[in-house]
Every structure is written in structure tokens, then in C-alpha cells.
Specification:
binds NADP nicotinamide-adenine-dinucleotide phosphate, two-stranded antiparallel sheet, about 160 residues, Dihydrofolate Reductase, subunit A
């Protein structure tokens, strides 16, 4: 099983505020949906309750410490390791956030699909720092802001060396 983190983060690593995204980037949201649509995804409970939440058509795993948590369409695990164990037969699993889950999953990640949003934002949730020397950039695709997308951004895919 390979593990990929997928996130959009500003230059100062903000990924959200008040459990929502802090930009309007429909091109990135479409890219995110197309990337994970047919893949199993793992997310934290807060991300699952965010208005920006998107269901995969494959499997949707939510991680929570609550023993009796239920949410329609989601499989529930009480730890990240339980989630990975549940999905161990899957070739590729996407971790879709948020901050707590990215941080815990980063040491196990083989890929990071990171949309770098070229701006500085105020937020309360952050993508974890990672050492770029330990990763190879296998995709880099810069997009300018336009009438639909509020900021310039770059699609990166990093592969662990
Ligand atoms: N820009 C992006 O790409 C992106 C993507 C996703 C999310 N976000 C943003 O990220 C923010 C949410 O991130 P967050 O860090 O606050 O929350 P989160 O990581 O989505 O969820 C945190 C919750 O996950 C559960 N959890 C965490 N570690 C666990 C463990 N080891 N075992 C069992 N359960 C565990 C806990 O749920 P319980 O409290 O239920 O126990 C915890 O409260 C929002 O602002 C959202 O918009 C941004």
C-alpha cells in the first residue's frame, strides 16, 4: 500500500480557518476531486464535518477517538494505524487532511500532492513542515489566477526519496 497526502497550502502553510478553506480555487478543487474520486481516502473527523468535504466513490474512512461516531457513507476508525490496516490491500490511499491527520501520516507518506497557493493567509490549521531534501518533485504545474480562481497556485507532486 502506498500512501499519498493531498492538500492545498498557502506560502505560510495555512490550509484552513474555522474548519473551512480560505480561498476560492475551483480549478484546484476539481483537480482534488478527480485525483481522489476513485481512491480510498482517510480523513480526520473535523475534515469530514467541513463544508468542503468531498466523498470518494471508493472508500471513505474517518478517524476519530469517539467510540460511537457515525456518519452516513463513512467507515469509522479509532486510530490512523487502524485506518491503514483496514486499507492495507489497497495499492494507493489518499490522506485528505486535516492538519492533525497530515502531521501524523507524513512519516508514512510515499507521495505528497501539494497545491501551493501563492499567497499568505490567516488561518488556524496548517500543513506540516517537511524537508524538501527528502523528496523529489515529480510534477510542477503553475497556474495563474483568473476570473474563477482567486490566487496563483502550483500543483506539485512530491515522491519520497
Ligand atoms: N487545504 C486543504 O487541503 C485541507 C484539506 C483538509 C482539511 N483542511 C482544513 O483543515 C482543518 C481541519 O484540520 P484539523 O487538524 O483541525 O482536524 P482534522 O485533522 O480534520 O480532524 C481532527 C480530528 O481527527 C481525530 N483524530 C486525530 N488524530 C487521531 C488519532 N490519532 N486517532 C483517532 N482520532 C484522531 C479527532 O477526532 P475526534 O475529536 O472526533 O476524536 C480530531 O479531533 C479545517 O480548517 C479544514 O478546512 C484543509
Amino acid at each position: 500500500m502506498k500512501i499519498a497526502l493531498i492538500a492545498a497550502a498557502s506560502e505560510n502553510n495555512v490550509i484552513g480557518k474555522n474548519n473551512k478553506l480560505v480561498w476560492d480555487l475551483p480549478t484546484d478543487f476539481s483537480y482534488y476531486k478527480e485525483t481522489v474520486r476513485y481512491k480510498p481516502i482517510v480523513m480526520g473527523r473535523k475534515t469530514a464535518e467541513s463544508p468542503d468535504f468531498f466523498f470518494s466513490e471508493k472508500r471513505n474512512i474517518v478517524v476519530t477517538r469517539q467510540a460511537d461516531y457515525e456518519r452516513k457513507g463513512l467507515e469509522v476508525c479509532n486510530s490512523l494505524s487502524d485506518a491503514f490496516e483496514l486499507l492495507k490491500a489497497e495499492p494507493l490511499v489518499f490522506v485528505t487532511g486535516g492538519s492533525q491527520i497530515y502531521k501524523q501520516a507524513l512519516p508514512f507518506a510515499d507521495y505528497i500532492y501539494l497545491t501551493r497557493v501563492h499567497g499568505y493567509f490567516d488561518g488556524d490549521a496548517y500543513f506540516p513542515e517537511f524537508n524538501e531534501d527528502e523528496w523529489k518533485i515529480v510534477k510542477e504545474d503553475f497556474r495563474t489566477s483568473d476570473e474563477h480562481n482567486s490566487h496563483d497556485f502550483t500543483f506539485f507532486v512530491y515522491e519520497k526519496l
